[in-house]
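Summary for the steering committee. The consortium agreed at its last meeting that each partner would contribute one worked example illustrating the joint modelling workflow. Our contribution is presented below. We chose a case with several input lines so that the handling of multiple components could be demonstrated. No manual editing was applied between input and output; the record is shown as generated.
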Amino acid sequence: MKSPSDVAFSALQQTALHTAALLVPSAERQEWTFEWVSELWHVRRSFARIDETFSLESQGEITRFCLGAFADALCVRHQAVKPTDRHAHMHGSAAQTLLWLSVAFLICLFIASFLPGVEAENEAAQFQISPNALLIAEATDDSANPSISAGLYLDWKSTHQRYFQDLAFYHVTRETAQTGSERISWNVARSSTNLFALLGLPLMHASNDDSGLPSVILSHDAWIRSFAGNPEVPGRILRIGHANVRIAGIAPAGAWRLPGSPDVWLLQPDAQIASDVPARTPGYLFAQLSPRGQDAAQRSGMGISARNLEDLLIDLSGTSLTVPVEGPWNLSAFALFLALLALPAVSSVSLGETHLTPHRASFRETLRRFLFLAAKFGLIAGIALFASYDIAYCRTSSYSGGAECLQLIACFAICLTGFRWTLADQRKRCPVCLRRVTNPASVGLASRTFLGWNGIEMICMGGHTLLHVPAQPTSWFSDQRWLYLDSSWQFLFADTVIY
Amino acid sequence: MVAEAKLSHTAAMILQAISAGYVYGFSIMEMTGLPSGTVYPAMRRLERDDLIRSQWERQSIADAEQRPPRKYYKITTTGRATLESSRKRYPLLERLIPAEEASSR
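What follows is the complete predicted structure of the assembly.
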């Protein structure tokens, strides 16, 4: 028969165990509780052998045993959250550095994949205006201003041309467009139907027309701005001015050079241009050089004389619209090359290797060290590529020369800074385990340089090396030196867990 | 230089006790005089680092003796090597818990 105090203590002990069990992760709770309940049974039996009636002292001992379950439960919980003390091993390690660089690389890549300007730059490099296409303008005018009248274009188009295979024209006006419920003010270019064929620019997401409605081509910029780059847009019906039109495709980003900054090109046959656009309205004229025209242009340049509608002789100039777009890879390769050239000017390229020590690194250690260095260089170059994209195109959705220039500068700056850090980091890595040396200690006095060296001493926490870095390079101690520690130092290092 | 697990004196004592034949928590507590809040967490960590291995007693054996089954601990090969280096570190370890004193289950 159990005494009331025995029952009370037993209940207290059981409660302590089951309360502690709440701290244990649910996956391990059942087994943990089972082990402690079993141990408690054996503890109680052990005390019962000595003290059959369970004195207060025995009950106190058993209760203390049960309270120890809280420490054990916390330990199990801690192990479940952090199965091994990886952080301590990872701290300053090569794996940790590569992990952080990889994370930075993936973040930059992720951001770049959502920037429409990045895709625009790729397209601008891929699809360029044909080198035989010229913008024809009056020689006295800036070619950015419209100077050729619609009447002159129609006149020339109807007559045989010696130097030009084909002519195209557009005239830009500000008009209101309605996309669904939204009304937008756009630069609408009333254009001849052959414009894009003449410029050699293929349309993106082209949609065949069988509705009989006039076709419009959206500029890449307007597509991103007004339709969020939706590839389903071609085929939709819009209202421009008082007429319904159908989107036939998207102009590639390579069309950014076309003058007048049109948001949309409304393709019209020449007869309709003749009726819609007054004859004296100035616009932009494009011509495709014939083989004879190409020869003539090579011989005597792009100066042309022609007669206008009043039969007066006017001087015209032909401007090529082809601008070399380097594209992201060439640009980054150039920035990388420049950064490598500039690197010796901003940092020592020495890796801090020393030949004064009798220790010779094994082939495996050397290979591992250089692979780590190469991986860091590679990741920095990748980060520079995509981070420069992010910087250049975070505020603009279309390709431009300014954005390309910003990309080049950003890529160069990141590469140079990153490479400088890479070399500095490598010099502070233990040649054996590639961990960063830590615990800098100042050694010696600057006033006693003549008698001994002074500088900083750092240690590898793996217990492999000591690094001596002179504060003032002298003729006998100019570079950092590694001291390889032998096994007699081992007792100082707690590389693995002590508990 | 090969890094080897270094044990505190307490952990080394517990490992020595297991090696000496004290194969469950309470017997280790009795042998070492350490409280349960020290012994059981230390055994968890030793098991995590593969220095010891645990095994539940068969239910049939416990049923025959009319008691709940116990969880027994056994030293592993790695644990034996670590214990060997700990003995050099703590030369009195073997005298504190000699193997011949180990009680049978």
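The radius of gyration of chain B is 14 Å. The domain at 9-97 of chain B is CATH 1.10.10.10 (Arc Repressor Mutant, subunit A).
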